[in-house]
Amino acid sequence: MQIAERLMSLSLIRTVLLTAFSFCLAARSLSTSVHLQAQAKSKKTLAKSGVKNVVLVDGVRTPFLLSGTTYADLMPHDLARAALQGLLKRTGLPKDAVDYIVYGTVIQEVKTSNVAREAALGAGFSDKTPAHTVTMACISSNQAMTTAVGLIAAGQCDAVVAGGVEFMSDVPIRHSRKMRKTMLSLNKAKTLGARLSLQNCEKIAIALLVFFIIVVETIFHTLFLLIQLADCCLNFKCGDVIVTGRDIVSKDNGIRPATMEQMAKLKPAFIKPHGTVTAANSSFLTDGASAVLIMSEEKALAMGYKPKAYLRDFVYVSQDPKDQLLLGPTYATPKVLEKSGLTLNDIDVFEFHEAFAGQIMANLKAMESDWFGQTYMGRKTKVGAPPMEKFNTWGGSLSLGHPFAATGCRLVTTVAHRLQKEGGQYGLVAACAAGGQGHAMVIEAYPQ
């Protein structure tokens, strides 16, 4: 009897335990389901019905160097060509698979005003691939990228290469208008007698110089193909930096470690003795180039690529340059967030262009000011500033350098890499530009 009772007790206990265990499994399943639903909700995609998904496949850049150093004897198209060749090698992209090439530049070399075309031909792209150059000050490669996005979204292209290049080691120096008129008129002298009738030998020398310049400019592209000034040798390092140059440049050379005490001793660069802009808080004159491969998601996957990120919404803004010259990020950030249906808290990675430390501080202060938001932006409250733990954590233009037109691609590629490494979903790029203009873009991580 005791054995029977004990067996009944064990059976009852077993029943109770199984019931409890089943209840726990159900509860856990419900909890997991709710958690996954919440996670899915917080990880919503910004894909839009009827709109092509545009993806960043990959991006590269040359090392950013102080102007007047290793790149000094090159030309802008040399750097742009190196970036394009690096992108081809990094991605394994067939050269004839690119539908279009867009490059940004700010200070144009007159011999290669359409540097996109010169660099593309030098890099070996098909001569059937159109290429054009854009300029929008410090957001020139931003404009190149969004031009690429537009071409793909409109169904005109499936694969576009965008980039930017700046070469501050050899900026064009112009003569006065009077001197230019004289030189041009002298060139019209058709005979030796006409040239000898000039009043002095100096004018004869100028006429000969003009003749030489015109001949060289006329045949520049042929000379470029024959001479191949400074052919670039490409290897790869981690991240987006490619190794380039006759002297094998492997890293940026403008990074200047310093203490607060050392920086405090630097003298003002412009307004003396009480100015605040110094060599330590300004982006230095930089040579460099960048390039990114942008494709429709469908085409990228069909070619076997695993994209790094989606390029989503973007905006351009413009203000009065007299007193709001560099406040583009303050105006562009809330506009692009509203366009995307996101808030500042949804952004995991921020990459703002740093023209000067004072420019960044001014933007952060304006973004945190209710008064500024109400007075200048027509908002009820402030925009809100990005949290510093998410802001430019891999270094910005102040430390890495700022080749004007190349920085935009660096910013977007850095966001894509940070999202991958840090496990974030959304990144935001913002930049100011001369003339009181600005740009912002939302980048979404590609599912891993």
Automatic annotation (TrEMBL):
GO terms for molecular function: acetyl-CoA C-acyltransferase activity; acetyl-CoA C-myristoyltransferase activity. Gene3D superfamilies: 3.40.47.10. PROSITE patterns: THIOLASE_1, THIOLASE_2, THIOLASE_3. This is Trifunctional enzyme subunit beta, mitochondrial. Residues 1-26 form the signal peptide. Residues 305-444 form the Thiolase C-terminal domain. The gene is hadhb. It holds the Pfam family Thiolase_N. Its EC number is 2.3.1.155, 2.3.1.16. It comes from the Eukaryota. One of its GO terms (biological process) is fatty acid beta-oxidation. Mitochondrial trifunctional enzyme catalyzes the last three of the four reactions of the mitochondrial beta-oxidation pathway. The mitochondrial beta-oxidation pathway is the major energy-producing process in tissues and is performed through four consecutive reactions breaking down fatty acids into acetyl-CoA. Among the enzymes involved in this pathway, the trifunctional enzyme exhibits specificity for long-chain fatty acids. Residues 54-185, 245-298 form the Thiolase N-terminal domain. One of its GO terms (cellular component) is mitochondrion. It is found in: Mitochondrion. Heterotetramer of 2 alpha/HADHA and 2 beta/HADHB subunits; forms the mitochondrial trifunctional enzyme. Also purified as higher order heterooligomers including a 4 alpha/HADHA and 4 beta/HADHB heterooligomer which physiological significance remains unclear. The mitochondrial trifunctional enzyme interacts with MTLN. Interacts with RSAD2/viperin. It comes from Sinocyclocheilus grahami (Dianchi golden-line fish). Pathway: Lipid metabolism; fatty acid beta-oxidation. The chain crosses the membrane at residues 204-227. It catalyses: hexanoyl-CoA + acetyl-CoA = 3-oxooctanoyl-CoA + CoA; tetradecanoyl-CoA + acetyl-CoA = 3-oxohexadecanoyl-CoA + CoA; decanoyl-CoA + acetyl-CoA = 3-oxododecanoyl-CoA + CoA; octanoyl-CoA + acetyl-CoA = 3-oxodecanoyl-CoA + CoA. The active site is at C138, H402, C432. It is an enzyme of class 2 (transferase). Belongs to the thiolase-like superfamily. Thiolase family. Its main location: mitochondrion. InterPro entries: Thiolase, Thiolase-like, Thiolase_acyl_enz_int_AS, Thiolase_AS, Thiolase_C, Thiolase_CS, Thiolase_N. Keywords: Acyltransferase, Fatty acid metabolism, Lipid metabolism, Membrane, Mitochondrion, Signal, Transferase, Transit peptide, Transmembrane, Transmembrane helix.
